[in-house]
Structure formats: C-alpha cells, structure tokens
Amino acid sequence: MSERDQALLESVQTHRARLGSAIAFGSLGARRPLTPLIRRLIAGMVIAAIACAACVGVSFVGSILAANAAAAEQAETPAPGEAPSDAPATPTPTEGTAP
C-alpha cells in the first residue's frame, strides 16, 4: 500500500472515532462546558478571596491584641494626681507635734 493510501485510511479512522464519540457523548462544547481559561479565572478568584480573608483576619487579631495591650498599659499606669500603689505613702505632719 502506498503512503498516500495509508494516510487516507488513518484520517478516515480518526474521523469515524471522533464521530462515534460525538454521538455517544455529545458535542465537544457539551462535554467541556468550562474552558481552561474560565477555570483559571475561577481558581484565581478563589485564591484572591482566600488571601483577602487571611489579611482581614490578621488585621482583626492584630487590632484586638493592640487594644488589649493598650488596656493593660492603661491599667498599670496611675491616673494623674494619684500615688503609685507600690510607693510608700509619705506621712503628713501633724499640727501640734514637734519632731
């Protein structure tokens, strides 16, 4: 058989296989509803949403920790005009006594 005949028989066999799969499984568009580009777009959107959620979570936890640290610092420092709790109180002199 010549090379040309062999090529023709292979193309007919390929054509029949494609036609049979189209009859059995539907058209190519029906078999693959999402193109690879749309899949990549959806995957990118999911990854971006996860990254945004992680950033918001880290920011939220950081703000809570900062608020707790500020509250603890404020509780440790005495208000103006008050004596610190660990310093000894100075006695006030009494009026009629001499040292």
Key terms:
99 residues
Report on the structure:
By secondary structure, the chain is mostly helical. It has a domain at 34-74. The protein is 69% helix and 0% strand. The chain has helices spanning 3-25, 28-31, 36-76.
Topology at a glance:
Layout: H1 3-25, H2 28-31, H3 36-76
Percent helix among the residues? 55-70%
Query: What's the gyration radius in Å?
Result: 41 Å
What is the N-to-C succession of helices and strands? HHH
Give the structural class. mainly alpha
**Major β-sheet, in short?**
none
The tally of strands reads 0
Mean pLDDT level: 82
What are the segments in which pLDDT stays under 50 over at least 5 consecutive residues?
none
Instruction: Tally the helices.
Output: 3
* N- and C-termini, Cα separation: 134 Å
Task: Name the beta content range.
Answer: under 5%
**Apparent shape:** rod-shaped
Compact description:
With 99 residues, the chain is mainly α. The chain is 69% helix and 0% strand.
